[in-house]
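Tokens in:
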């Protein structure tokens, strides 16, 4: 699909033409990844972060946020619970926590792998190559790192590098691929300063990077961040709205350009539409959901943006809610790890996880 055509679909407002986009994304999803919805148990295990991302409530400068880091036993217990609830994957997510020791993470991954059959996805920010290699060696299967925006100027503005370093998420993504991880990335939709041209380029980059997983969600302003305090008169004419509909458009286009990728209906989308956001996401290109299995006492502290959904519920309640939603759509549940079809195609016979290779 041409860049111009992507821009025009992002700007589309005619309901009949939008219905055609949703139908096409749904058809391509069914043909390439089937009707199964994969469930990934999300463990938000630490909210410590050394970074100053202009959009995120976990940024180091937010000193009003109470910080936590779950113990190894707590994390393993949450992973065992995810397995008991029938999920095929755990996603271990955190801020870019300087307190995460390389060997501690290796031990954690090894324990989860010993005690459960789960695939392990990491989402720990920009980490050094030796850490990424060690965690892959310990058994981690996948890594999620959004590049947030392909507009380098905007990226540098909202995502300052660590002192003495140049932040380059694209370089980390390439490294992850060469280490054999299943690689996921994505963007926020409607970041102040993001234009339609930028967003179309982001979607083109999903295909260029040949991503195995694509996570996109609306940008949601957090008042205790610099971006969250953007004044209306700072917003340009070509600003992408951070709306629910724009999120569906990006999900649908991501499905058309990357037919075999795993695409979740994200929590940020459900935050904009608590009632049917996840269902509409699944009907417009998505094939995965990430029910939260973080112990309830920590959830409100993982406040990347305000009014996040599912912060009072237990892991069991989230599981039951999501199962009900998926069943009501007549979709089935993925059995097993739910590896990305794109990854399998890319890796060929090398596309087995470390433990599969014995
Ligand atoms: N620290 C890791 C990282 O940055 O990759 C993982 C955790 S971080 C909270 C996960 C994602 O949350 C980011 O990649 C970003 O896209 C999203 N996020 C952060 N602040 C957000 C906001 N205000 N609105 C929507 N999404 C946000
Ligand atoms: Fe830290 Fe990730 Fe939030 Fe940036 S997006 S402040 S790296 S948790």
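Residues out:
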């Amino acid at each position: 699909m041409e860049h111009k055509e992507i821009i025009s679909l992002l700007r589309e407002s005619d309901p009949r033409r939008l219905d055609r986009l949703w139908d096409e994304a749904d058809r391509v999803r069914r043909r390439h990844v089937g009707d199964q919805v994969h469930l990934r148990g999300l463990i938000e295990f630490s909210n410590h972060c050394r970074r100053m991302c202009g959009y995120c409530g976990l940024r180091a400068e937010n000193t009003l946020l109470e910080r936590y880091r779950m113990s190894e036993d707590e994390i393993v217990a949450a992973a065992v619970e995810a397995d008991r609830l029938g999920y095929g994957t755990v996603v271990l997510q955190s801020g870019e926590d300087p307190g995460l020791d390389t060997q501690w993470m290796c031990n954690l991954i090894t324990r989860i792998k010993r005690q459960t059959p789960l695939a392990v996805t990491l989402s720990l920010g920009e980490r050094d190559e030796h850490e990424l290699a060690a965690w892959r060696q310990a058994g981690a299967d996948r890594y999620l790192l959004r590049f947030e925006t392909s507009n380098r100027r905007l990226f540098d503005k909202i995502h300052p590098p660590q002192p003495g370093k140049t932040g380059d998420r694209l370089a980390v993504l390439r490294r992850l691929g060469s280490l054999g991880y299943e690689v996921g990335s994505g963007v926020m939709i409607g970041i102040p300063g993001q234009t339609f041209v930028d967003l179309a380029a982001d979607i083109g980059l999903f295909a260029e990077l040949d991503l195995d997983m694509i996570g996109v969600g609306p940008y949601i302003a957090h008042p205790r961040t610099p971006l969250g305090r953007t004044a209306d008169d700072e917003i340009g004419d070509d600003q992408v709205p951070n709306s629910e509909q724009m999120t569906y458009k990006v999900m649908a286009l991501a499905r058309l350009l990357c037919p075999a990728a795993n695409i979740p209906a994200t929590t940020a989308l459900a935050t904009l539409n608590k009632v049917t956001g996840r269902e509409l996401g699944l009907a417009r290109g998505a094939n995965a959901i990430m029910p939260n299995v973080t112990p309830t006492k920590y959830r409100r502290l993982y406040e990347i943006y305000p009014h996040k959904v599912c912060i009072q519920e237990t892991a069991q309640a989230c599981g039951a809610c999501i199962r009900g939603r998926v069943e009501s759509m007549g979709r089935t549940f993925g059995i097993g790890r739910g590896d990305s079809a794109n990854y399998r195609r890319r890796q060929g016979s090398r596309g087995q996880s470390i433990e599969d290779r014995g």
